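It would be a great kindness if you could assist me with a short task in structural biology. Thank you for your consideration; the sequence and its tokens are set out here.
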Amino acid sequence: MSNSDFRCPACRAKQPLQPVCRRCEADLQLLVRAIEHSAALAARYEQARFRSDPHAMDSAARLIALLDPKQLAALRCDADQA
């Protein structure tokens, strides 16, 4: 997800990824941290795939599945095409 694709879940305002909504001032800190953590896990998954480390890939995949199952499906689809 790029910063320009983010919408506040409370008021649907399109905005950069930030901890407080610019329009309704909703607290988005937890959501922002989850998105950032999901991106870090995706990077960890890709590094493990590059190193051919199935244990690290599985570990990262389990955590990604909890936060963002669609991202996991996309990562696995990319891995199958490579």
